[in-house]
Amino acid sequence: MPSNPPMDLPIMEDRKPTLLDNVEHHDLRLIPGHAAAWGDAVNQVRVYPNEFAEVQREYPIFFRKDAQGSVYAVALLGFDRDENLFLDGNGWNARYVPAERARGPFLLGFREGVDGDTPMVLIDPAHPRLSRTEGIPLFLPHGGNAPLLEQHIQILQALHNGLTINDDVFGAWIDAGLLAPVKVDIQINDDTGYDIPDLFSINAEALAHLDGAVLAGLNARGYLGLAFQVLTSLANVQQLISLKSRKLQGA
């Protein structure tokens, strides 16, 4: 079975984020929706433990390691490079869009102060979804945040919260021996198959045989339920196969 190309995470171009300001950007608008032209044609997207409950209903969750050996989670969206099987001419067809893609051109920054770090909303000024003439306003006529901007601020806060607990959750799983390499061989039809390398998942057997004290510790921190959500999500691989099969039949 042939191996598919290395799977990609979206990479932001080397552009300096700008602080969002209701004076300088009073007329800034956000073009809604998702499209390949806006960077949504990716075959995986990073996800965080605090969104696993939503992610596992739509996408299979796997784990990878970065160049430094740190573990991160991804939702699998497709099999070929730049393939998002949930994306079509009408947008992103799923009940939940992972926060990394839902945030659009917004980023969360922090300013140091005597009372601690103050969160700030930043924008990627060259992002194609930002416009002065098209889309939905980010600010109200008198300068307050419009509902759309408030929604994206909540998404940024969720991302920040996810990053905060990310290493602790995965570290606890590693200490408990729950993360293990997994071989993912996908056969779409007689002519098309994929061997997806370098993935990890929760080892169901190790989870079933956890020591009582370790099990209780994971449960007390909420990490046990998250592990089961990961295992539940793997059933969505079949959904991806069905989507890919329909795509090939319609090609």
Task: Write structural notes for this entry.
The structure is a single chain. The protein is α+β, with helices and mostly antiparallel strands. The chain has one domain (18-250). It contains seven helices and 13 strands. A hairpin with a 5-residue loop joins strand 12 and strand 13 (193-202). The relative contact order is 0.19.
Mind sketching the topology for me?
Elements: E1 18-19, E2 29-30, E3 44-47, H1 52-55, E4 61-65, E5 71-76, E6 87-88, E7 91-92, H2 99-102, E8 106-111, E9 118-123, E10 130-131, E11 136-137, H3 147-175, E12 179-187, E13 193-202, H4 204-208, H5 212-221, H6 223-233, H7 237-250
Antiparallel strand pairs: 1-9, 2-10, 2-11, 3-5, 4-5, 6-7, 8-9, 12-13
Throw out a few tags for this protein.
251 residues, alpha+beta, three-stranded antiparallel beta sheet, disordered N terminus
Give start-end ranges of low-pLDDT stretches: 1-14
> What's the β-strand tally?
13
Helix content: 25-40%
Roughly how many Å apart are the termini? 22 Å
C-alpha-based Rg, rounded: 20 Å
Question: Strand order of the main beta sheet, please?
Answer: 1-9-8
Overall pLDDT confidence: 91
How many strands, what sense, and barrel or not for the largest sheet?
Answer: 3 strands, antiparallel
Mass-distribution shape: globular
Task: Please report the number of helical segments.
Answer: 7
